[in-house]
Amino acid sequence: MSTVTARPVAIKIDTDIKERVKRLAEARQRTPHWMMREAIRQYVEREEKREAFRQQAMTAWEEFCHTGQLATMEEADDWLGRLEAGQDVDPPECHA
């Protein structure tokens, strides 16, 4: 079992944000510390997903530039419609 070591980190925030965090924490019966940790955790997770999506898009674009292979919007739309209807179908074949 791995042990997670938490270390303190200082950040500077303006007074208005500090008071808003404090009010939210009181309303949610949490500490301001918990609220800030949770906000940072959610932000990092969201941005990691956004970066992974961006990397996948860049990889797909590079592959298209290299091969010229694609599926049309109509083919993709038809495939997605069939998936939505509950059919277990493979994605459309790419072509030039």
The end-to-end span amounts to 51 Å
* Major sheet description: none
Structural class: mainly alpha
Task: Encode the helix/strand succession as letters.
Answer: HHH
The low-confidence parts are none
Rg, alpha carbons: 23 Å
Q: How large is the count of helical segments?
A: 3
Average pLDDT, all residues = 95
Give the strand tally: 0
Q: What is the strand content?
A: under 5%
Helix content: 55-70%
Q: Per the principal axes of the C-alpha atoms, what is the gross shape?
A: elongated
Describe this structure in words.
By secondary structure, this protein is mainly alpha-helical. The protein has a domain at 15-67. Helix content is 64%, strand content 0%. It is built from three helices and no strands. The chain has helices at 15-27, 32-67, 73-84. Helix 1 (15-27) packs across helix 2. The protein starts with 14 loop residues before the first helix and ends in a 12-residue tail after the last helix. The mean pLDDT is 95.
